[in-house]
């Protein structure tokens, strides 16, 4: 198909038809923009994974909570967050037979939902499925309750020899102030590394 389209474009150029050239230029520009967006997401997940990997020298285990905002103002933003979470999962050594990484997943709108408890999140396929099954809902965004739910899951399932990490992905439009999120979360009290995306 690509060869046919290019041949058609070359034939049109020979015939002096510049509208086809413009259409192909527009198509190429849209493809570049899409590729740039995907590259940005890949770079962000790589940055987070490298940051987490840098902790390897100090910790051999990680308890990770991923919080996804299913109330994002646009479904496209939510889909990007989901892809970023899946990309992060693929880069981590999650294995049912190993104890390196345990993952808890929750999503939220006005009410948070625990999708995967930290204690059960040691199988990459199950963790991936928990993320893939989260549906975009739209609606109100109450981040504090979601962070609090993840902290509760961390407190129940955390391992003393593991670093605790919370990755919060939202569109930045929370209806509760960040100060309330920090107060509710007690992140600093339990010494959790937090990443906001």
Top keywords for this entry?
single chain; 197 residues; alpha/beta; Rossmann fold; 50% helix; 17% strand; globular; disordered N terminus
Q: Which structural class is indicated by helix and strand composition? A: alpha/beta
Beta strand %: 15-25%
Number of domains: 1
Q: Biggest sheet, in brief?
A: 5 strands, mixed
- Shape descriptor: globular
Helix content: 40-55%
CATH architecture level-2 label: 3-Layer(aba) Sandwich
In total, how many beta strands? 5
CATH class division: Alpha Beta
* CATH domain fold name: Rossmann fold
**What is the terminal-to-terminal distance?**
38 Å
Helix and strand string, N-terminal first?
Answer: HHEHEEHHEHE
Largest sheet: spatial strand order:
3-2-1-4-5
CATH homologous superfamily label: von Willebrand factor, type A domain
Count of DSSP H/I helices: 6
**Mind telling me the C-alpha Rg?**
21 Å
Low-confidence spans: pLDDT under 50, at least 5 residues? 1-14
Mean pLDDT: 75
Brief sketch in words of this structure:
With 197 residues, the protein is of the alpha/beta class. The protein has helices at residues 2-14, 18-53, 75-91, 124-132, 143-157, 178-185; strands spanning 61-69, 101-108, 112-116, 162-169, 193-196.
Explain how this protein is built.
The chain has helices at residues 2-14, 18-53, 75-91, 124-132, 143-157, 178-185, and strands at residues 61-69, 101-108, 112-116, 162-169, 193-196. It has 197 residues and is of the alpha/beta class. Strands 3-2-1-4-5 form a five-stranded mixed sheet, sandwiched between helices. Helix 3 packs antiparallel against helix 4 (124-132) and helix 5 runs parallel beside helix 6 (178-185). The two termini are 38 Å apart. Residues 1-14 have low confidence and may be disordered.
